[in-house]
């Protein structure tokens, strides 16, 4: 599979360290508010990546943190603690806020068919591990104490800014710290590993440490939680593009300084969901949630479909009009699947392989989900039986997970129920006979044997049964 790597800035064949086994890490949500549909775009695309890696035969172990401490509003070392902000907004404790929004995130994932990672670890579970890693960094000379806080010394690295060629000027903007200069830092790019003398007097969650009572910085949590469950090496690390700097850059600095070797080979970054006024963000306060989509009558899986229609490395602009178009396309697709006659025929291996190749070609090409959706439409054009088409879609759905088969089944159940209600008074034997004739006529029409189809209609007519072709299928009346 060819996959873009933000580290090398090119597409390369994705090869895990151990053939067939992938260790994958995902930056989890900061649980001070609902996840917005932008955050969920990132998790949706990561979910497709995980499912596709499994589809092509890998055993994937995926770990995700839950950020419930240490993430400041600047993404660096300044600004308000996001969790405190949430707690204050709702007059609750930080832990109450964390629990509520973690559960809300899980509920959103379920609605969007985002599989939860194998391991999910809240940052506040891992304080001893953070302290241990910071101690190692101090011992190795990569960290220093100043003004009560522990900082990472970026000047000790041969290489920093792996994702961006920052110069000093870019950095001033990049770290967004220029407003509040921290005089304790030896270098502008240094960042806090552990806060003890912070300006956040009302910090709610604090722990004892060798450096005094305090709390961890945001970046250390991902380095630690990843290695706690996946060891010293990672095959792939995922997140939204805004995490590339400073968060992921700092994760690399910490992990490689701790272990003394390269840490993660592959960085998968999903680009942003934007609105007309720019990036959707929680801190702006105006954002869309899955619940809001539902309130407005959209199935969350329509949003998943909307995400699939564009490439993860392009910004995606959200508008209600675009979502409406996705909804129409989704519903048409479902109804075409509902029309497939799955009862007949065996799987046509040749056609199956041909259809599957189009799908894997698309996803092997840097996870091109929009081409994968095209491959799904192409299934209907294949010269093969409905059974094969259905089985192909079923196979694609293990990756795309759009709920198409379930939605199609619901349509067929509804149709069957309606037909049963309409035909409630008809003698069961007669009904079985009519249905058999209707199916035979449908098959004849499909085979373009119109004479046969007409003959069946006339045979029924001679018995006083009139057929009526409707959008919901063929119905009948009895004279
Ligand atoms: P947060 O909860 O802010 O820590 O963000 C959770 C995930 O969503 C991270 O991987 C972010 O990089 C990502 N993210 C944030 N905003 C957006 C957006 N507008 N579009 C896509 N992903 C985003
Ligand atoms: Zn992270």
Which short descriptors sum up this protein?
alpha/beta, Rossmann fold, 3 domains, 5-stranded parallel sheet, 46% helix
> Which small compounds were modeled alongside the protein?
adenosine monophosphate, zinc ion
pLDDT averaged over residues: 91
Beta fraction: 15-25%
* Coarse structural class: alpha/beta
The rough form would be described as elongated
Strand order of the largest sheet: 5-4-3-10-11
* Percent of residues in helices: 40-55%
CATH fold description of the largest domain: Rossmann fold
> What does the largest sheet look like?
5 strands, parallel
- Unreliable sequence segments: 169-179
Given this structure, which CATH class of the largest domain is correct?
A: Alpha Beta
Number of strands: 16
Distance between the termini: 62 Å
Considering the protein shown, what is the CATH homologous superfamily of the largest domain? HUPs
Describe the secondary structure blueprint for this structure.
Blueprint: E1 2-5, E2 10-13, E3 21-26, H1 37-55, E4 59-66, H2 82-90, H3 94-111, E5 119-122, H4 127-139, E6 143-146, E7 149-152, H5 168-174, E8 191-195, E9 215-216, H6 218-230, E10 234-240, H7 244-259, E11 264-270, E12 273-275, E13 278-279, H8 290-295, H9 300-308, E14 316-317, H10 320-338, H11 349-364, H12 369-379, H13 386-400, H14 404-422, H15 428-446, H16 450-462, E15 465-470, E16 473-478
Helix pairs in contact: 2-3, 4-6, 6-7, 9-10, 10-14, 11-12, 11-13, 12-13, 15-16
